[in-house]
Amino acid sequence: MEDSLVLYICAVSLGDGLTGSRKFKMRGVEVDENKFYRRVCKFFAQTTLKTVASWVAQLNNLVEEQPYPALVHLPSSYLDCFISVNPNPEEHTHQPVLIMAFRGPYANSVWQEITGPSDFQLARRTDPASINALYLDSQDQPLLYSPRLANRFSLLGLQRVQLSRKQAQSLGLTTRQVATFCHAPTVSLDGEQVELSSHCLVLLMRRESTVRYSSRLPIGLMNELVVEGLIGSIQARFTEAVGPEVCFYTIPYSKNHHNILGGHMWTIPESSHMVLSKHAYPSCPDAEQVVILTLTGQNIMENEIKFLHKVLRRDPAGHEGFELLALKWVSQLSRRQAQELSPFEIGEREWQSSVQSLTSTPALILALRRVRAFNSLRQQLQHNYPGTLHVLMSPTPETAFRQTCLFFSESELVPDHSSRPFLKFLPPYHIDTSGHLLYSYMTLGPEPLLTLALFKPGAWRHCFGKILTLIKQNGYTLVGLRVLLLDSRMANALIHSPEKQDPTEELEYLRSGPSLALGLLRENAVMRLWELMGPEDPIEARTVDQTLWRAQFGSDRLHNGIYGSQSYRKAVEDIKLVFPRGVCCAETSLMRYEQISSLYSDPEASSDCDHSHSLRTAVKFSSEFGQGNLRSTFVMRMGTVVVYCVSVPAGPLVCTALYQTTCLLIPSSLLQQSQPPLFSELLQRLLRTGCHLLEGRLCMLGEKQRRHVCELLRASAGEELLCEGPCLAIVLQADNAVTCFDIILERICRERPDFWRVTREFLYPRFKKEAVKLLCYLFDDLGLDSHHHVA
User: What is the sign of the dihedral through the CA atoms of 21, 27, 33 and 34?
Assistant: First the structure.
């Protein structure tokens, strides 16, 4: 039966019979009672409900302003259909009754605190200052009556459910509702087709006259969706207008309905099988993190719901909200759960009281995810956290994993891809890797991603060492390096974007000289590089942050210094384009899925090259062509030298009779060196001394290749250094770059003695013959502006 609201009114006539003596008064009341009763009944029988509700029209005018108005429609019935009059004088009581109405914030809760428990004995024990404790003497004759149910819905439970068509039909959903609640649509998000979650949210609520009020609840919820700007994503799923009946479905609670929905609304998983000591709980703030947020207290939906709304939605400053993975309502926390949620450690003074407080209130547990989740949520907490213990968060990844296992099974953790603002920087969620099972993700950490950073012509040669330092300082692993002159096909493939109207000028700039391409690996590599680069306009970047890469290496929007992949999908395409043979790192499951090869030997190094090729000197004559800053390069035949002509950008290279070309090998032990990376600082010093950087690439040498290089350099310890991983091979030109390279390094090390231990691991030729063979073995070309060329 539905609870009913009944209003009892005691009405008496205010006629002349009420004046005079007491005896006359009472006799007058008795005489006029029948007359007054007839007048009241006549009024109720002849007056319609619409007559006394003149305010309905004004109310409907206001309601019509809402997107989904819930208009008030009154029946044409008379008042006697709703009101009954009791004529029996014996049921009248002349005992005075005090009726009070209160209005204000939390009025019902405050009044219950004043009155205390209805059992006077319990009131005297627990709240001796309450009204019932002071004035109530018998349970049979209550002193006060007040409704215990608030005049709003109270939450009893909630659950996320993936409805099948059979379940939906058993609950009585219409055909259109079945299509809505049981179908996961696909929408476009940042150019990616994303399948929305097909899980529904089930709420178990209680209030007086539930059925009557629940019929209007969907309309109010739809209006809230419009106000919050959320109706668009729902409307996109349909061709016709969407009404409240499509998005919401209300039904009276029954045990059968609860069983149809799975019967697990309050189920807590058995987590005793989780062996926490076996996990490392890696945490990378720049990747997505899972954090547990707990809301507690007797009035969660009144007091803490605004904070939850703030956490889930984007704030006015543009900071992205959290993705909701799971939520659970716990009517009363167990002691074990309270101990796990307590922000205090065992032994601290507040620990015991916090556990007692938490076990006395219900709790709403939420599993949330976003990039830098812990830092972001911590910043939104009050300065006096944990304060009243009404808002709690898991402080570390390990605690978050423990709390997740305590309240949620892995099947309850449901991603909401439409709420992942950085989705375009991440792999497609349908790729079957261990990182996409959330329990595994929390214990193993995210899988590293590949991305491309291309330093444009004129922006990298003078600061090559600084670039390598920045790469290392920001947690990247160098897995590919090439110096290349982009052709039209590659340049167009890199910068192609629908947003760019006329890329001709940028294409010409990219083809004007050699670029430095870096293949980078780390967690959330694509998004992190995008953040490090900053705005496309270097002037704007400098106003934001002087340390942004485009602020350091760029001059204007065209010459902005660096290109980076804009999304995960573009990063995969860029890596395949620039490093078609593969990259120098161990194969990951994502690389295997994307068909990106992992190199175990260098495909370009061949022992035949150092025998069939040699270095030739290029004699250059400069001539200006129009207004362009180009020079023609003529390579004259001198003996066996082949003649050819090219046009290259005019550069600072000045050739002398002592000019030599050498090759420097930097082994993996230095590339993987912990910060600060001294080898990159040493390279920067070399470039300042007059050494000119021409070429470079990252090599993964096989066993035979390592042995051959060591034979060329006559270095017995070289093979041991080269077998540890990829090595960086760079080509330098300077006066006496081969014969006096030891002296050049020694001069630098006098200024920085800590460089000595770095130079001991450098591999380089001491004689011209060794330099020629090593260069011909590792490189097919030394660049168009080189003093020597491989022929």
Answer: negative
Helices (H), 128-278: 131-135, 165-171, 175-181, 210-214, 217-227, 231-235, 244-247, 255-260
To the nearest 10 degrees (0 to 180), the angle between helices 703-713 and 768-778 is: 160
Write out the H or E segment, with its range, that includes residue 669: helix 668-671
| The one-letter amino acid at 642 | V
Q: 168-194 as b/e, with b when 16 or more CB fall inside 10 Å?
A: beebebeeebbebbbeeeeeebeebeb
Burial 102-133 (b: 16+ CB within 10 A, else e): eeeeeebeebbeebbbbebeebbeebeebbbb
Characterise 372 by phi-psi region: left (phi > 0), alpha (psi -120 to 50), beta (else).
left
Task: Give the residue-averaged pLDDT of 380-387.
Answer: 87
Q: Is 515 left (phi over 0), alpha (psi -120 to 50) or beta?
A: beta
Neighbours of 208 (CB within 10 A): 16
Which helix (H) or strand (E) segment is 482 a member of?
strand 477-484
SS3 732: strand
User: Which amino acid is residue 329, in one-letter code?
Assistant: W
Tokens of 548: 């942004």
pTM of the model: 0.73
State whether residue 600 is helix, strand or coil: coil
Question: Distance between CA 184 and CA 237 in Å, rounded?
Answer: 9
Beta bridge pairs of residue 483 = 516
E strand segments, 279-322: 288-296
Q: DSSP H helical segments within 19-137, as ranges?
A: 22-46, 49-52, 56-63, 107-115, 120-126, 131-135
Find out whether the peptide bond into 457 is cis, omega within 30 degrees of 0.
no
- Please state whether beta strands 449-455 and 391-393 pair in parallel, antiparallel, or not at all (unpaired): unpaired
Cβ of 227: how many Cβ atoms within 10 Å? 11
Which residues are within 8 A (CB) of 617 and not within 5 positions of it... i.e. 6 or more apart? 638, 641, 787, 788
> Crossing angle, helix 741-751 and helix 678-688, to 10 degrees?
110
The rounded distance, in Å, linking the Cα atoms of 107 and 188 is: 47
SS3 548: coil
pLDDT in tens, 521-557: 999 999 999 999 999 999 999 999 999 999 999 999 9
369: which strand partners? 290, 323
Return the closest-CA partner of residue 373 out of 396, 389, 392: 396
Q: How many CA atoms lie within 13 A of 515 on its CB side?
A: 25
What ranges in 119-206 are assigned the alpha helix state H? 120-126, 131-135, 165-171, 175-181
Q: For residue range 174-218, what is the model confidence (pLDDT) as tens digits?
A: 888 888 888 776 656 556 666 666 778 898 888 767 777 787 888
> 201 in helix, strand or coil?
strand
Rounded alpha-carbon distances, angstroms, from residue 165 to 182, 254, 262, 539, 750: 6, 20, 14, 57, 78
Determine contact, residues 397/443, Cβ cutoff 8 Å. no
Q: Name the nearest CA neighbour of 422 among 475, 493, 369.
A: 369
Has residue 516 got a pLDDT over 90?
yes
Q: Is 84 exposed, middle or buried (0-12, 13-18, 19+ CB in 10 A)?
A: exposed
118 vs 370 pLDDT, higher one:
370
How far is the C-alpha of 327 from the C-alpha of 311, rounded, in Å? 14
Both structure tokens of 778: 């590792």
Closest CA to 406 of 294, 271, 264, 295: 271
Residue 646's SS3 state is: strand
Count of C-beta atoms within a 10 Å radius of residue 239: 6
Q: How far is CA 342 from CA 271, 334, 356, 389, 462, in A?
A: 18, 12, 10, 8, 55
Q: Are 115 and 102 in contact (CB under 8 A)?
A: no
pLDDT of amino acid 33: 66
Beta bridge partners of 563: 454
